[in-house]
Amino acid sequence: GIITDGDLRRALQAHKERFFTLNAANMMTPNPITIGVDSNMQTAIELMARHRITLLVVVDAERVVGVVQK
User: Which of 4, 23, 37, 67 falls 20 to 30 Å from 56 in CA-CA distance?
Assistant: First the structure.
């Protein structure tokens, strides 16, 4: 999974009083949208638009190697 700034904001709004007691599993996006390391930027832009997201996890053989952020 991944924890983005959006995940943190949503967790803070939903759990104001106990925010600092939450663990990563309570906040993370468990199955983020990914893009292959060999994909082009057009594909990245289309994926972000289709899924209404601003961050893609870049993978190489299922290993995280980076992120692309809008």
Answer: 23
Domain that includes residue 55, residue range = 32-70
Burial class (CB in 10 A: 0-12, 13-18, 19+), 69: exposed
Q: Which of 29, 35, 41, 26 is nearest to 56 (CA)?
A: 35
The number of folded domains in the chain is: 2
Q: Which helix (H) or strand (E) holds 68?
A: strand 63-69
37 near 61, Cβ under 8 Å?
Answer: no
Query: 43 and 70 share a domain?
Result: yes
Please give the chain's pLDDT, 70 residues, in tens. 999 999 999 999 999 999 999 999 999 999 999 999 999 999 999 999 999 999 999 999 989 999 999 8
